Amino acid sequence: MTNIIIAGAIGLILSMLGTPVAIRLFSRRGYGQEIREEGPSGHHGKRGTPTMGGTVIVLASLLAYGGSHAATLTPPTVSGMLVLFLMTGLGAVGFLDDFIKIYKQRSLGLRSGAKALGQLVVGAVFAVMVTQQANVYGITPAEPRLSFLRDFGPSIGIVGFTVWVLIMIVGFSNAVNLTDGLDGLASGATGVVLAAYVLIGNWQLRNNCIDQLGPNCYWVRDPLDLAVVAAAVLGALIGFLWWNAPPARIFMGDTGSLALGGVLAGLAIATRTQLLLIILAGLCVIITMSVIIQVGSFKLTGKRVFRMAPLQHHFELKGWAETTIVVRFWLIAMLCSALGLGLFYFEWMPR
C-alpha cells in the first residue's frame, strides 16, 4: 500500500510542477495546437495553445513508478514494466504524430497507415512478452485466454491472443484519442478508470491464489505493482488536469491520449480484466461508437445520426457549453467505472 501512495504522490507533484514548465517551453518554441477547419467554431480560439502535454504525463508516471520502488527498496516487476513499456511506446507514436502536426502546421500528423503500424509494432511486442516471463510459481503476466473478472474459456493460442491484444490496444488508444476533444475531458474520463485499477490491483493482491487458494482467488502475477502503475499514472494525470481543465492552458495531444489508452489496455490485460475494461471505460467506448455509427450511417444511407462526431461535438453544436459537456461526461465516466467496480466486487458480496 505504501508503494501505491508514494507513486501517486510523486506523479502528482512532478506533473503539477512540470506542466507549467512545459507550457512555457512549448509556447516559446511555438508548439501550438492546429484546429480542424470543419470543427466547431468555438474551437478556433484555441489555436496555438501548447500541445504535446502528454510528455509530462508519461515522464512523471515513469519517474513516479521508479521513485516508489526506490523509496521502498523493492524491485520493479515484469508486469509493471511491460505495461509502462506499452504506455511509453504508444506515447512515442503519438509524439511523432504531434510533432509532424506542429512542424507542418496542419491538423493531421502521421498518415493513418504509419500511425497504425507504430501502434501494431508496439502492441505486438507487448502481446508476445506478456505471455512469457513466468515467476517462481509459474504465473505469467497474461495467459492466451479471454478474461472478464479473471481468465475464462480455453486457450485461444498465441496468434489468436496477439490479434486480440492488438485489437484492444489499437481500439482503446484510439478511443481515448477520440475522447480528447474538449478541455479536460479525456483526462477526467481516464482518471476514474485508473482509480478503479488501483482498487482492483489492491483487491487482487489481498485475494491472490498463492496466499489463499479459493474459488474466487486471482491468478495475477504482480497485482500490487499493477496498482502502483495505475497510481503513478493517475497522480500524473491529476497534476496535468490542474492545467488542462477548462479553459485548458495545454493539451495532452496524441502523445498523451495514445499513451493513456495503452496503459488502460495494458492494465486490463495484466489484471485479467480485458472485457471488464469495456464497462470501466464506458464513456470512451460510447464516444467511439458514436463515430462508428456516424460513419456507417452516412455510407449506408447518406444521412448523419449526429450533428457531428465524436459525440461531444454533437452537443457543442446543439448549444451546450463546453464545461457543461465536460462535467456531464465526467459524471457518465464515473458511473461507468462504478458499474464496472460493482461487477468486479459482486461475486464477493454475501448472499
UniProtKB/TrEMBL annotation:
Protein name: Phospho-N-acetylmuramoyl-pentapeptide-transferase
Entry's family note: Belongs to the glycosyltransferase 4 family. MraY subfamily.
Pathways per UniProt: Cell wall biogenesis; peptidoglycan biosynthesis
Gene label: mraY
Described function: Catalyzes the initial step of the lipid cycle reactions in the biosynthesis of the cell wall peptidoglycan: transfers peptidoglycan precursor phospho-MurNAc-pentapeptide from UDP-MurNAc-pentapeptide onto the lipid carrier undecaprenyl phosphate, yielding undecaprenyl-pyrophosphoryl-MurNAc-pentapeptide, known as lipid I.
InterPro entries, alphabetized: Glycosyl_transferase_4, PNAcMuramoyl-5peptid_Trfase, PNAcMuramoyl-5peptid_Trfase_CS
Membrane association type: Multi-pass membrane protein
Catalytic reaction list: UDP-N-acetyl-alpha-D-muramoyl-L-alanyl-gamma-D-glutamyl-meso-2,6-diaminopimeloyl-D-alanyl-D-alanine + di-trans,octa-cis-undecaprenyl phosphate = di-trans,octa-cis-undecaprenyl diphospho-N-acetyl-alpha-D-muramoyl-L-alanyl-D-glutamyl-meso-2,6-diaminopimeloyl-D-alanyl-D-alanine + UMP
Sorted UniProt keywords: Cell cycle, Cell division, Cell membrane, Cell shape, Cell wall biogenesis/degradation, Magnesium, Membrane, Metal-binding, Peptidoglycan synthesis, Transferase, Transmembrane, Transmembrane helix
Cofactors named for this entry: Mg(2+)
Keyword ATP-binding among record annotations: no
